[in-house]
Design goal:
The complex is a heterodimer of chains A (549) and B (428).
Chain A lengths: L2 H22 L5 H7 L6 H13 L6 H8 L3 E4 L4 E5 L8 E5 L6 E6 L3 E3 L4 H15 L5 H13 L3 H13 L3 H15 L5 H11 L5 H10 L13 H50 L7 H18 L4 H26 L8 H23 L15 E5 L2 E4 H23 L1 H11 L1 H6 L4 H23 L11 H14 L4 H41 L10 H6 L1
Antiparallel strand pairs in A: 1-2, 1-5, 2-3, 3-4, 6-7
Helix pairs in contact in A: 1-2, 3-5, 4-5, 5-6, 6-8, 7-8, 8-9, 9-11, 10-11, 11-15, 11-18, 11-19, 11-20, 12-13, 12-14, 12-18, 13-18, 15-16, 16-18, 19-20
Chain B lengths: L2 H15 L3 H6 L1 E7 L7 H20 L7 E7 L5 H14 L4 E4 L3 H14 L3 E3 L12 E3 L8 H12 L3 E7 L2 H16 L7 E6 L7 H10 L6 E6 L5 H10 L9 E3 L4 H4 L11 E4 L8 H14 L8 H20 L4 H7 L4 E3 L5 E3 L7 E2 L2 E5 L5 E6 L4 E2 L13 E4 L5 E5 L4 E2 L6
Parallel strand pairs in B: 1-2, 1-3, 3-4, 4-5, 6-7, 6-8, 8-9, 9-10
Antiparallel strand pairs in B: 10-14, 11-12, 13-16, 14-15, 17-18, 18-19
Helix pairs in contact in B: 3-12, 4-5, 12-13
The chains are: A mainly alpha (549), B alpha/beta (428).
Chain lengths: 549, 428
């Protein structure tokens, strides 16, 4: 199976022989000997070594197995000894060593002096099961829960025996339930139909895919036409359980699609809400809006370079930093170009399009044309398991919440602060506002800066799940204009409702129509809608709006 | 051999042959380089331009070719497909280059193909592609589907025990043709229609949550599932990130990619990708001495010790050496003579084997499956026992089964063995 095996296997024979003879001796040194066999082993031979180590059942080998699983097992080049390292973080130049037998500290070594012992998928899968077996006796209920879930994925006789023992000892209700599901799945294979009925009753409330698949397999016929499950009563119970599970899974799926829709929609809202200020309130068609988002995303990248050891903090700090960077660029843009072009939408469009090209090229020259990778903090990746069939991704949840917060702050700024009052006054009636002593020039610059700053904040959010590159803005500029027009120019609430509903419709269609057709359908529906209601979902009313129209 | 020695050697040779010095002064051989240096493809193609420049530089240090120096003519088609054809015409008609190394995307190759056939030029194409083509004027040094896609699927089927398949691709010609071939192949292996899911997303697709949730659901039917990815470029990063977010690990649902190599991995956070697979004919982590010295030369030439090497670079290395050998054999750079000399030639590849150019203008290649490591390199977990000859016309597509390409005996790139007729890219 492994191509390299042929070339190196003859080298390995003595190594393996050493490993075997050493293992035959009942001394404590056999762990070290077995580990030395890992040095040049193929993946299959590594698996054999790992099996032999764990077969001893001695909990002291757990750290070694866990280290191998987590890429923390290294060979020191100078003396060919195997060590666990405390942390193999890329930023460390010197790694702290731990002796794999005594588990005591063993000094440190430079990265160049250490060679990692690699693993592959198959070996990692096996290691996970083996580590989980040791974890069954952990003090921490969460560790035990994860261990049971891991073991239940592939049950063999040995794992079953371990689960049975643990079931009798287990005090934690959640872990106990998990064990019972695992045992019930195994009980379906027993010859006693009473036991199988009990197992089905125990499994009927689990929405997990393996449970449903196993129950459904009871209803299937084998090739020669007889049912896989001989007992009709058991089949009826299994059919009932599958129906109940399927009902719940359908509900979960709808909830999941709605969640996806809201998350896509909140991204749309986030990228459009800045535009709702510059385009909606001021009436400036700013084609460089996407590039202001791109600047926000690059600000996140720079913050991360500045604080490489504090990813989470760098992202939080990037929010105000991106607001300032994009906001300042916005103010400069307004003062130097846009203010000379008020009331000339076509020229504004062309000028800002030119600016967008300039900004892209600046970024290409400074950061290169390649995409930059922005790391996601650990707490933002992963899922929250709601039930067996429904899992919600944490980063999407963060985006939804973040959008709502940004939207709320923007509402407060526009409705409750003096700046907001002035912005609204100027947008409704410039001449009258000027007559009342408002410096409209300054307000224009501030409004544009506010909209641009919000675009920068959107860029921080985008950096978390898409490519940070010079073309980032281009992919979002069209959708942000669409959202603003759909929601009603000048209405922030329209942007919110419009963006969210476009996201939900898109995601509801995607599973049936595919990503390409779903986008086309949304676009066509939007065109039809604008034909019928040209001012969008929430049209501006009042004298000012009518005079504009 | 350093530069002065090289010059001395050339000098001695010319003196010995008593070639007039005037002939030497005008005698450079022009080599065209047709790779995008700007636009979306610049990221990948600039590396290939540098590779050709390095190979030319090395050849000149060895004393050039037929006693003449090689001279690179670099043009920038700017990721713009029609511009590829214009630049190709410029290279062939104005600069009169002897050979061109170039193109990346299939659409750029299709764009220059008529130009090369009309002007009777010679193009070495270094990237894996969908097959279904064999031109008299093109030497395909990248992998055909049977040298990448089919062995990868074989590996998953036999070694990993995959029973259910998601064919996930970007919506353009290479993924669509490759997936058509794979679907037909899987069906001949007894995979049922309901166990294959094919899906396409647009270029640069960024929101993968619904697709990844669908893959997760498809993969939870109790059978081992794998994703065969022909997702292109930028869309890969959000795809793998979303797999990580939804906690789909390579141990549950492995993804084997045909367009993700060392170069692409160097620009992204590899943590969510560890354990996922890629199928190539070359990996930078290969231990062969030829590869070690190639990497050293590359780092010395490009002056950046962290630059990666990748599969299309090896293809150019093979292609360049094939051309040099053919020119030496023909004692001429005339395209007709070089094309006559090329089939059957063998040159070493970088993985310790030999690449042989076959009569269908494709080469023999070993196939490797690698697992992504945390450092952005690959661990080879499987390889074919020998080399695999490239098949221009797939045996698994109904229309192309009976087509053969043979530029030596049949003198045809599109010969139908049933109707005994040559059509399409024939040169008569």
């Amino acid at each position: 199976m492994f191509g390299t095996k042929l070339q190196v296997s003859w080298l390995l024979i003595p190594v393996l022989l050493c490993g075997r003879t050493a293992l035959a001796q009942p001394s404590g040194g056999d762990v070290a000997a077995a580990l030395s066999g890992l040095r040049e082993a193929t993946f299959i031979e590594k698996e054999e070594v790992v099996e032999r180590l764990s077969a001893r059942g001695d909990p002291s080998v757990r750290p070694v197995l866990a280290a191998l699983l987590e890429d923390r097992l290294f060979v020191r080049q100078s003396d060919q000894r195997v060590f666990i390292v405390k942390s193999a973080d890329d930023r460390l130049t010197s790694l702290d060593l731990i002796d794999p037998v005594s588990l005591a500290g063993a000094g440190s070594a430079t990265r160049d002096d250490l060679a990692k012992i690699g693993t592959n998928n198959r070996l990692r899968k096996r290691l996970r099961t083996l580590v989980a077996r040791f974890d069954l006796s952990s003090e921490d209920a969460a560790v035990r829960l994860a261990a049971v879930a891991e073991i239940s994925r592939a049950l063999d006789a040995e794992s079953l025996a371990l689960l049975r023992t643990q079931s009798a000892l287990e005090r934690h209700a959640g872990v106990k339930e998990e064990i019972d599901i695992g045992l019930a799945l195994a009980a379906l294979d027993t010859g006693d139909s009473r036991a199988r009925l009990d197992a089905i009753a125990a499994l009927a409330h689990s929405l997990r895919p393996p449970v449903r698949n196993r129950l459904a397999s009871l209803l299937e016929r084998t090739e020669n036409g007889v049912f896989a499950e001989p007992d009709g009563q058991v089949r009826a119970a299994a059919a009932r359980a599958v129906r109940a599970i399927d009902r719940w899974r359908a509900v979960s799926r709808v909830v999941e699609m709605l969640f996806f829709g809201l998350s896509v929609g909140s991204v749309l809202v986030l990228v459009a809400v800045g535009l709702a200020v510059t385009f909606g309130v001021m009436g400036v068609i700013n084609m460089a809006h996407g590039e202001l988002m791109m600047l926000g995303a690059y600000t996140t990248y720079v913050m991360q370079l500045a604080l490489p050891n504090h990813i989470a903090a760098s992202i939080l700090l990037a929010i105000p930093a991106a607001f300032l960077v994009s906001g300042l660029v916005g103010v400069v843009l307004e003062r130097t170009i846009i203010r000379f072009l008020y009331g000339r939408p076509l020229e504004t469009l062309l000028a800002t399009f030119g600016v967008s090209l300039v900004l892209q090229q600046v970024v290409r020259s400074v950061f290169s044309a390649n995409n930059r990778s922005v790391e996601t903090p650990a707490w933002m990746s992963g899922t929250i398991q709601v039930n067996g069939a429904l899992a919600i991704t944490v980063n999407r949840l963060c985006i939804i919440l973040f959008t709502l917060v940004v939207f709320a702050i923007l509402q407060v700024v526009l409705k409750r602060t003096r700046l907001g009052l002035e912005i609204r006054a100027v947008s409704q009636n410039r001449a009258m506002a000027q007559a009342m002593g408002i410096r409209t020039n300054r307000v224009d610059a501030m409004t544009f800066g506010l909209g641009s700053g919000v675009a920068g904040i959107a860029g921080v959010a985008l950096s978390q799940f898409t490519n940070v590159g010079p073309n980032l803005g281009q992919s979002y500029i069209i959708s942000s204009f669409m959202v603003v027009v759909f929601g009603g120019v000048g209405s922030l609430w329209g942007t919110l409702v419009g963006g969210l509903s476009m996201g939900v419709v898109d995601q509801l269609l995607e599973p049936y129509a595919g990503a390409v057709l779903a986008k086309i359908f949304v676009l066509v529906a939007l065109i039809v809608f604008i034909q019928r209601w040209p001012r969008g979902l929430f049209p501006q009313t009042g004298r000012a709006a009518e005079s504009q129209a | 051999m350093n530069r002065t020695q090289g010059f001395l050697a050339v000098g001695c040779l010319t003196a010995a042959l008593a070639v007039p010095t005037a002939a030497r002064a005008q005698g450079t051989i022009k080599v065209g380089v047709l790779h995008s240096l700007s636009g979306t493809m610049a990221i990948s193609e600039t590396t290939l331009k540098d590779t050709v420049l390095m190979l030319i530089d090395q050849q000149n240090k060895k004393g050039g070719l037929l006693g003449k120096k090689l001279e690179a003519v670099v043009v920038d088609p700017a990721s713009n497909w029609p511009l590829f054809a214009e630049k190709a015409a410029q290279l062939l008609e104005k600069d009169k280059v002897a050979v061109v190394f170039g193109c990346w995307t299939s659409v750029s190759r299709k764009s220059v193909l008529p130009v090369f056939e009309k002007d009777n030029g010679l193009l070495f194409y270094p990237v894996q592609y969908e097959g279904e083509e064999s031109s008299k004027n093109v030497i395909y040094t990248g992998a055909a589907p049977n040298q990448q896609a089919i062995p990868a699927v074989d590996y998953l089927m036999k070694e990993v025990g995959v029973k259910r398949w998601v064919l996930e691709g970007t919506d353009y010609v290479y993924p669509r043709t490759t997936n058509k071939i794979l679907e037909a192949y899987l069906k001949t292996k007894g995979v049922r229609t309901e166990d294959i899911s094919i899906n396409y997303t647009p270029f640069g697709h960024a929101d993968w949550q619904a697709r990844v949730a669908a893959i997760k659901k498809f993969g939870s039917a109790g059978k081992k599932t794998a994703v065969v990815s022909t997702i292109n470029g930028d869309a890969n990063v959000p795809f793998y990130k979303e797999l990580g977010n939804q906690r789909i690990s390579a141990e549950d649902i492995p993804v084997v990619a045909f367009s993700v190599g060392e170069e692409e991995l160097s620009g992204l956070d590899t943590k969510p990708l560890v354990g996922h697979l890629a199928a190539w004919n070359y990996f930078m982590s290969n231990n062969a001495p030829a590869n070690k010295s190639f990497i050293e030369q590359w780092h010395a030439f490009i002056k950046k010790p962290k630059r990666t090497t990748n599969d299309p670079m090896e293809a150019h290395y093979i292609g360049f050496n094939l051309w040099v050998k053919a020119v030496e054999k023909a004692q001429s750079t005339d395209v007709e003579k070089v094309l006559a000399a090329l089939p059957g030639l063998e040159v070493p590849n970088l993985t310790g084997g030999v690449a042989k150019l076959m009569t269908n203008h494709h080469i023999t290649k070993p196939v490797y499956i690698g697992e992504v490591r945390a450092d952005g390199q690959f661990d080879v977990v499987w390889k074919t026992s020998g080399t695999v000859p490239g098949d221009a016309w797939s045996d698994f597509l109904p229309g192309s089964k009976d087509i053969e390409a043979d530029w030596v005996t049949l003198k045809c790139g599109n010969y139908n063995t049933k109707t005994k007729a040559c059509s399409g890219q024939s040169y008569k």
